Amino acid sequence: MSNNGSNKNRIANCEPVLRIRNLRKTYMQGKIPVHALDDVSFDVKKGEFLSIVGPSGSGKSTLLSMIGLLDRPTGGSVFIDDVEITRAKESEAPRIRREKIGFVFQHFNLLSTLNAMENVDIAMRFTGVSKNKRKERAFELLIQVGLGDRVKHKPSELSGGQQQRVAIARALANEPAILLADEPTGAVDTKTREVIVELLKGLSEKGQTIIVVTHDMDVARQTDRIITMRDGAIASDTWSEMK
Ligand SMILES: Nc1ncnc2c1ncn2[C@@H]1O[C@H](COP(=O)(O)OP(=O)(O)OP(=O)(O)O)[C@@H](O)[C@H]1O
Ligand SMILES: [Mg+2]
């Protein structure tokens, strides 16, 4: 079992890997502006396991898409490893996403015609890594998530929890600075949820920075820190006491 106190102390000495400053995102719904993010600022240190909670519509997914460079803010900045990604040219965005960010989604988003190995391998295409090295790394990652005996299985031949573990292996393939997960346990049962959370905890203890958006307080309580969003702003930011 992890010990929250020691993780917190370990993290306290680390540099911030993510800095968010005065982030704003305004959508126009017809003529009415919707302030999905309204002056959000915080830092995340290397190895932190952070959860973002809050009511539906409070801006959680919008925040993740700004950090993951899937969309651009109306104002403010996001720095990853001291690079201001929000200033990157559109032509640079795919490379930054590939190198800095690993994405995990609620519905896994694996390619159905590819097996587990190929789903992980494909994340490393276009990175200059040789085919043999990619295969080796994909196998190592699948072993790391506990699926060394399922490498040839296609998504339809895997359980929801196993598919999510393949998706986590794929997200880790390029050693991202940050793993972003939007409701990673939203589509799995309670027992599988615990397997996924334990896996993420283990990764964070090895230094992987992880940000999860979740509606599930049982998940949030197992992370190092909980940021609660309300109406596009941070309502509270607390270190988890359960740890
Ligand atoms: N592409 C868009 N165009 C217009 N409005 C949007 C768009 N995306 C999000 N919004 C609005 O921004 C606000 C924040 O949405 P967001 O998806 O970030 O919420 P959330 O906290 O992730 O909610 P949920 O828990 O339901 O996933 C909402 O009011 C939403 O309607
Ligand atoms: Mg959302």
Tell me about this structure.
The radius of gyration is 18 Å and the shape is globular. It contains eight helices and ten strands. Strands 6-7-8-3-9-10 form a six-stranded mixed beta sheet, with helices on both faces. Strand 9 and strand 10 form a beta hairpin. 32% of the residues lie in helices and 28% in strands. It has a single domain, classed as P-loop containing nucleotide triphosphate hydrolases (Rossmann fold, 3-Layer(aba) Sandwich), CATH 3.40.50. The protein is α/β, with parallel strands linked by helices. Helix 5 (131-144) packs across helix 6 (160-172) and helix 6 (160-172) runs parallel beside helix 7 (190-205). Adenosine-5'-triphosphate binds at residues 27, 29, 34, 36, 54, 56-62.
Search tags:
alpha/beta; 4-stranded antiparallel sheet; 243 residues; 8 helices; binds adenosine-5'-triphosphate; 28% strand; 6-stranded mixed sheet; single chain
Helix-strand layout with pairing:
Elements: H1 4-12, E1 16-29, E2 32-45, E3 49-53, H2 60-67, E4 75-80, E5 83-84, H3 93-100, E6 101-104, H4 116-121, H5 131-144, H6 160-172, E7 178-182, H7 190-205, E8 209-213, H8 217-220, E9 225-230, E10 233-239
Parallel strand pairs: 3-8, 3-9, 6-7, 7-8
Antiparallel strand pairs: 1-2, 1-4, 4-5, 9-10
Helix pairs in contact: 5-6, 6-7
Judging from the principal axes of the Cα atoms, what is the shape? Answer: globular
* CATH fold descriptor: Rossmann fold
Q: Estimate the helix proportion, in percent.
A: 25-40%
Distance between the termini: 10 Å
The count of helical stretches stands at: 8
Main β-sheet description? 6 strands, mixed
Instruction: Report the top-level CATH class.
Output: Alpha Beta
| Secondary structure tally: strands | 10
Bound molecules: adenosine-5'-triphosphate, magnesium ion
**Neighbour order of strands in the largest sheet:** 6-7-8-3-9-10
What fraction of residues sit in β-strands?
A: 25-35%
What value does the average pLDDT take?
A: 93
CATH architecture: 3-Layer(aba) Sandwich
> Which spans have pLDDT < 50 for at least 5 consecutive residues?
none
The string of secondary-structure elements, in order, is HEEEHEEHEHHHEHEHEE
How many domains in all?
Answer: 1
CATH superfamily: P-loop containing nucleotide triphosphate hydrolases
Rg for CA atoms: 18 Å
* Class of secondary structure makeup: alpha/beta
